[in-house]
Amino acid sequence: MANERSLVLVKPDAMQRGLAGAVLQRLENRGLLLIGLKLMRVDQDLASRHYAEHEGKPFFAALVDYITSSPIIAAVFEGDSATSAIRNSVGVTNPSQAAAGTIRGDFGLEVGRNLVHASDSPESGERELALFFTQEELVQWSRDNERWISENP
Ligand code: IDP
Ligand code: MG
Prior knowledge:
By secondary structure, this protein is an alpha+beta fold.
């Protein structure tokens, strides 16, 4: 799907460890277009809505505690195949299994401290970004060097 949009969260552990810049830089470096960015706290209500699919699972309470425990950075990236590109850069859910070179594989060890959230489908991306951003907060812009990032900009 052309011009997919994906929600990325720099989770509390990455914030506490001073890794926000490193996380965002890896996605920016790939050529994904940043169209939304904010530093914020996630409250219980937002956490429950964002992670609704995990309600009832054994780790749900710990997950809500984790995501609400410190400020996070919410970001929206746009691009062709943005969802899979970002998920590949993020690595698999459990950092101990994540490939070296991925964010989780390079910076994490445990599933409950896996540094970053990334939408798992274009549909999830649209649902999730609407929880974190208003339409007015998303910035439509284009880069002067787009043709050096995309063959068909
Ligand atoms: P994802 O973040 O790679 O998409 P999901 O399966 O959607 O992974 O799980 C959402 C989040 O819930 C994970 O990123 C992780 O923080 C947490 N989580 C998932 N599975 C476990 C678990 O088995 N124990 C503790 N936390 C978990
Ligand atoms: Mg997920």
